[in-house]
Amino acid sequence: MLDKIYGSPSRYVQGKDLLKRAGKYIKPYGEKLLVLADETVQEICGDDLIKQLEEDGFDISKVTFNGECSMKEIERVSKIGEEDEVDAVLGVGTGKALDTSKAVAEELSVYMLIFNTLASSDAPTSGLSVIYTEDGEVEKYQFYDKNPDLVMNDTKIISQGPPHMLASGISDALATLIEARATREAHGENMHGGKPTIAGYAIAEKCEETLFQYGIQAYAANKEKIVTPALEAVVEANTLLSGLGFENGGIAGAHAIHNGLSALHGDIHDMSHGEKVAYGIVAQLILENRPIDELERYIDFMLKLDLPITMEALHLDEASDDDLRKVAELAVDPDDTMTNMPFKATADDVVDAIKAVDVYVKDFQKRK
């Protein structure tokens, strides 16, 4: 019998212009830091953060992230950290860069620190990384004994980011309650390998409530590059509430379909994690045969956020039946999270659901 398990980061800090104050929150974790960020993030804020930390007395090893959270990249960065005898790894950026920094910190047995620059996913708070092949296909989930020691969100930096990435994060967070509900109904496992907790489910519920209450306002604020209470609320929902909710509540069909979509190449490969999850959300709701009012509540909300929930918008319009079959076979792999659905979904079911998303959304648009 599985135990209930709940996990979370040790400390979460969010605020406007947090970059200027980051040093005081990082100080308890040592003075020698490996700072990992890609070239774009270095230009946006990474170099400024390093400069501020050096002024605060930290010894920095600056490493440029190569773009893919693969075992090869993790080994490369870990070697640098080992040679420099760092006290902590500070991941700066979002998504794959942060997942790589977590993997490196685990490999080196040092503190795991996160400075998030986009509210585009719930990766920053989680105690796991999604590992990809060098070609960008999902290879596995890699789990750690702990969550990050420190997670920081500078809402000023996040407000300057592309609005579609905030919308992507809202979509990723929107999957939280939907998948936690399926996991609970299936008596499935959460991401810690235990049974979901009451706390995890309650956080998932609050996450969704916050998104529907403030999501449209936050998206508008991001377009104007301003920090508002609505944006602050959604940044917290996208990062903290969604992170705690999915990890402790469990994930199911929406993310399994996302993982299946990662097998396709072409323009869809350039779509963000949350944009592909958006399509997976509607597909899961269709698989569950949810009432039309519920289904259309999500469709309407996601369309207002300009999320790609038609086959054309997701660059699936030229995908062959063989392509969709490949997606579906991966989605129902017994090692993936489709097993947390409260019924057995076959590859045929998933193919039909993927096609039905396009049909249902187009029908909704015509009627509106």
UniProtKB/TrEMBL annotation:
<feature type="binding site">
    <location>
        <begin position="117"/>
        <end position="120"/>
    </location>
    <ligand>
        <name>NAD(+)</name>
    </ligand>
</feature>
<feature type="binding site">
    <location>
        <position position="38"/>
    </location>
    <ligand>
        <name>NAD(+)</name>
    </ligand>
</feature>
<keyword id="KW-0560">Oxidoreductase</keyword>
<dbReference type="Pfam" id="PF00465">
    <property type="entry name" value="Fe-ADH"/>
</dbReference>
<keyword id="KW-0520">NAD</keyword>
<feature type="binding site">
    <location>
        <position position="132"/>
    </location>
    <ligand>
        <name>NAD(+)</name>
    </ligand>
</feature>
<feature type="binding site">
    <location>
        <position position="255"/>
    </location>
    <ligand>
        <name>glycerol</name>
    </ligand>
</feature>
<dbReference type="GO" id="GO:0008888">
    <property type="term" value="F:glycerol dehydrogenase (NAD+) activity"/>
</dbReference>
<feature type="binding site">
    <location>
        <begin position="95"/>
        <end position="99"/>
    </location>
    <ligand>
        <name>NAD(+)</name>
    </ligand>
</feature>
<dbReference type="GO" id="GO:0046872">
    <property type="term" value="F:metal ion binding"/>
</dbReference>
<feature type="domain" description="Alcohol dehydrogenase iron-type/glycerol dehydrogenase GldA">
    <location>
        <begin position="9"/>
        <end position="154"/>
    </location>
</feature>
<comment type="pathway">
    <text>Polyol metabolism; glycerol fermentation; glycerone phosphate from glycerol (oxidative route): step 1/2.</text>
</comment>
<feature type="binding site">
    <location>
        <position position="122"/>
    </location>
    <ligand>
        <name>glycerol</name>
    </ligand>
</feature>
<dbReference type="InterPro" id="IPR016205">
    <property type="entry name" value="Glycerol_DH"/>
</dbReference>
<feature type="binding site">
    <location>
        <position position="273"/>
    </location>
    <ligand>
        <name>glycerol</name>
    </ligand>
</feature>
<feature type="binding site">
    <location>
        <position position="126"/>
    </location>
    <ligand>
        <name>NAD(+)</name>
    </ligand>
</feature>
<feature type="binding site">
    <location>
        <position position="128"/>
    </location>
    <ligand>
        <name>NAD(+)</name>
    </ligand>
</feature>
<protein>
    <recommendedName>
        <fullName>Glycerol dehydrogenase</fullName>
        <ecNumber>1.1.1.6</ecNumber>
    </recommendedName>
</protein>
<keyword id="KW-0862">Zinc</keyword>
<keyword id="KW-0479">Metal-binding</keyword>
<feature type="binding site">
    <location>
        <position position="172"/>
    </location>
    <ligand>
        <name>glycerol</name>
    </ligand>
</feature>
<dbReference type="InterPro" id="IPR001670">
    <property type="entry name" value="ADH_Fe/GldA"/>
</dbReference>
